[in-house]
Amino acid sequence: MAKEFFAGKLADVINWGRKFSLFQYPFVTACCAMEYMATMGPRYDLARFGAEIPRFSPRQADFIMIVGTVTERQAPILKRVYEQLAEPKWVVAFGVCASSGGFYQNYAAVPGIDQIIPVDVYIPGCPPRPEQVLDGLIMLQDLVQRGQGLSYERLRREHEKIKALKAARA
Amino acid sequence: MSQLALAKLKEAFPREVLATSDYRGDETATIAREHVKAVCRFLRDDPDLQFDLPVDLTCVDYLGEEPRFEVVYHLYSTTKRHRIRLKARVPEDDPALDSVADVWPGFNWSEREAYDMYGVRFVGHPDLRRILLYPEFVGHPLRKDYPKEGRQPLVRREDPPQ
Q1: Is the dihedral of CA B36, B42, B45, B51 positive or negative?
Q2: Which backbone phi and psi does A34 adopt, to 5 degrees?
Q3: Confidence of residue A69 (pLDDT cuts 50, 70, 90)
C-alpha cells in the first residue's frame, strides 16, 4: 500500500517535470508555420511553458506538432516520423488542415491526419492565433500531468494482447 | 511595339498560325500543334523578338469540345520588353505535341506538370515523369472528368489509427 502510494507520487512528480520540458518535433508543411513562428517568438513566447526547444530528430522529441496541410504523398513520411518518436509521445494537429483537411477536399490532401496517426490535441483555426496554440499546449500539459494520451492507450492495448497470448499459451 | 510580334509571326508562318487576337495589347496566337516547336524557336531567335523568358506553360481542359485540350505558353522578352501568348489545341485521342524544353530549359518542369495534371504528352521531353504526384497515382486529376474527391491514399487507413 505504502509502496503504491509513493510510486504514484513519483509518477506525478515525473509527469510534472515532463510537462514543463516538452521537446517538440515541428512537422511544418504549410502556411500555419507563420503562426507557429509567432508563437515561438518573444511576444507569445512558448518558452514560458517550457516547450521552446524544437528537436529536428523525432527520436529526441516528446510530441509532434503537425503544422499545415498533409498531402497524400506526404502521408507515408508523416507515419514514419510518428513511428520514430520515442514513447511516451503525443500528437498535436495544428490548424484546420491538419485537423480535418480544411478547405482542401480534393485528390491531393489528407482529410485530417487522424486518418493516419492518432491525434491527442486539435488546434482549430485557419491559421490558429497564437493564443489558441498556447491553449492547445496547456491542454497537452494537462494530458501529460495526468499521464494520459493515445500512445499510453496503445501501449495498454498491446500489453493486453501480450497477456492474452501468454494466457492462451499457458 | 505592340503587335510587332504578331505581325512578324504571321509573316513568317502564314499557314501555321491559325488565329490571332490582340485585345488591348494582349497578343495571342493560336498555332497548329505540329508547328509549335518551330514557332517557338523562331520567337526566341529572331533578333527583333528575342523572347528569352519562358513565363508559364499550362493546359486547359475544354471537356466536350474537340480538340479537347489547349496548351498555353506565355513568353516575355527581357530585352525588348514585350509579351506573347501561344495556344495550341490538342485532341483527346492523341494528346501529344512537341516538347519545347530544349528551346527554353525553363519549360522542363512546366511540361512535366502539365503531363502530370492533364496527361498531355510532350514528345522529345528529356524526362517526362510525374512531378507533383506520386508514381502510383492513376489518372490525371485536373481533367474535368476526374472525380472531385478521387483520393488514392498511399497509407492504409485504420480506424482508429494505430
Answers
A1: negative
A2: -60, -45
A3: very high
Contacts of B119 (CB under 8 A, 6+ apart): B95, B139, B140, B143
In whole numbers, what is the pLDDT of chain B averaged over residues? 90
CB atoms within 10 A of CB B12: 15
Identify the burial level of A1 via C-beta atoms within 10 angstroms of its C-beta, where 0-12 means exposed, 13-18 middle and 19 or more buried.
Answer: exposed
Residues from B contacting A (CB-CB < 8 Å) are: 132-134, 141, 146, 148-155, 157, 160-162
Smallest CA-to-CA distance from A101 within A137, A74, A80 is with: A74
To the nearest whole angstrom, how far is the Cα of A105 from the nearest Cα of chain B?
A: 7
Predicted pLDDT at A35 = 93
CB contacts of A154 in chain B (<8 Å) are 162
Q: Which residue has the cell 493560336?
A: B30
In the prediction, which pLDDT does B121 show? Answer: 93
Interface pTM (ipTM) of the complex?
Answer: 0.80
C-alpha cell at B35: 508547328
Catalogue the E-assigned strands of A1-105: 24-28, 63-67, 90-94
pTM: 0.85
Burial A60-92 (b: 16+ CB within 10 A, else e): ebbbbbbbbbbbbbbbeebbebbeebeebbbbb
DSSP H or E segment with residue A71: none
By DSSP bridging, strand B83-90 and strand B26-31 are parallel
CA dist., res. B92 & res. B46, Å (int): 33
pLDDT average, residue stretch A92-106: 91
What's the pLDDT score for residue B37? 92
| Angle formed at CA A53 by CA A142 and CA A85, multiple of 5 degrees | 70
Give the distance from residue A136's alpha carbon to the nearest chain B alpha carbon, in angstroms. Answer: 21
Work out the mean pLDDT of chain A and round it to a whole number. 90
Closest to A122 measured CA to CA, from A148, A140, A147, A144: A140
